[in-house]
């Protein structure tokens, strides 16, 4: 297979294994060395279900194709080997997992053993590394950020302050003498969820105050993180009421009180929001990244696939005309149009020099950026609304004296509206309106996703074009009325309303990152209103079941 690596990443002359800690859960907490080794790895042996997705996100790899989609002929990225379970579906022992690692290392491949947390802290790293020593295979250890300090930090709890300088970390195995922790040191407890009742009683009996602050944080550093704050006297009852479950980190001490002012992660404007991103696969990246930064859990559902026109002759003729000087202007109304023309140029062996003497128009900043990436500069970008209407507002009238040619090349989608063509004709121009690409409705998403859309399990949907509205409703149904609808501009808002959707958020300009910002502003205002009203902070999907649904479940 083609890996496309530099000479520094070629297979080593002898076997080598890198034991890499994945940290507490957030992929962004992987160390620089861990990311570097992931890029160089031939094989990644995982141990947790979420590790494969972590590798994909960190390396920017495409999502694996669905069962009914065409499988890629060339592998991209390292081979992922499940080290958590064997072929029989049973969990692998440390020894069995070591055999998996050694099998690939002996082939002369770069093997990266991805381990939860840290390889040498509550992990099988020592046993597997010893197996490497026995087999004569070299290895290295790349520590992972410890949940001991990372999880409290994400909960807004510092472990030390100028007034509290001592910390004790305790793994709760049922044999701890709690009398030695009767002072006011900060305690960090691991594996304490099931024993917190007995632990709190023992600490109270040892002399700790009943009012001592306690915080318990489960699945820390992830967007499902949840924290319960209580006191030593009440933590057992409160943790049980909140249904706290492992993995969790518990902090005991006065430092917990600082969470009230220092909580930063769970207070993100879209924290834990499940946001549907209906886009083409290759266009979802910037929007998804922005949403994730606001604490959301984006879920990309392709609604459109972009394909070449059924009859390429019209496009071939237009490109030849461009080279021969047939046009005064070329107008790009989307990034996809830029991509389609560029691909046709590459097919003919042409480059940007063919645009010499041609004026270039772009419908908006994103399209202009795509043009700039080609080494070209847009002569006209709307000064107002970034749309076909905005483009017409700034488009000059044809002038027989100043304009030697009166023709415009307009490469567009097959479903584009005629407003731009009509407007240009009114200004005295002739248009070659050419189908540069087709937008085809994608296959419906899996049944669980369709159900989540219609039943309100998504907190928000972000629509980036009118076609994403039409296609999502067509392949998956209308989003539930409780779902927040965010749109990129007025045209998309109109289409959403025509489909019976209530538009809650609209970007100030047609830009996907500004759309994410606008949704975050909405989430922040919603959160502030709930806090001010003294109500618990909930998500739009946190609805009480109706009497009808409760009755249906009972039956």
Describe it for me?
With 555 residues, this protein is of the alpha/beta class. Helix content is 34%, strand content 18%. It contains 19 helices and 20 strands. The protein has helices spanning 32-40, 51-59, 94-105, 125-135, 147-154, 196-206, 235-241, 259-262, 285-293, 313-323, 335-348, 365-372, 388-394, 419-426, 447-455, 466-476, 490-498, 512-532, 547-554, and strands at 16-21, 43-46, 79-82, 110-115, 138-142, 167-171, 186-190, 213-218, 226-231, 248-252, 274-277, 297-300, 304-307, 329-332, 359-362, 407-413, 430-441, 460-463, 484-487, 505-506. The chain has a 5-stranded parallel sheet with strand order 3-2-4-1-5, with helices on both faces. The protein starts with 15 loop residues before the first strand and ends with a helix. Mean pLDDT is 88; it is low at 1-13 and 547-555.
Task: Offer a few descriptive terms.
alpha/beta; five-stranded mixed sheet; 34% helix; disordered C terminus; disordered N terminus; five-stranded parallel sheet; single chain; 555 residues; 19 helices
Q: Can you lay out the helices and strands and say which pair or pack?
A:
Elements: E1 16-21, H1 32-40, E2 43-46, H2 51-59, E3 79-82, H3 94-105, E4 110-115, H4 125-135, E5 138-142, H5 147-154, E6 167-171, E7 186-190, H6 196-206, E8 213-218, E9 226-231, H7 235-241, E10 248-252, H8 259-262, E11 274-277, H9 285-293, E12 297-300, E13 304-307, H10 313-323, E14 329-332, H11 335-348, E15 359-362, H12 365-372, H13 388-394, E16 407-413, H14 419-426, E17 430-441, H15 447-455, E18 460-463, H16 466-476, E19 484-487, H17 490-498, E20 505-506, H18 512-532, H19 547-554
Parallel strand pairs: 1-4, 1-5, 2-3, 2-4, 6-7, 11-12, 11-18, 14-15, 14-16, 16-17, 18-19, 19-20
Antiparallel strand pairs: 7-10, 8-9, 8-10, 13-17
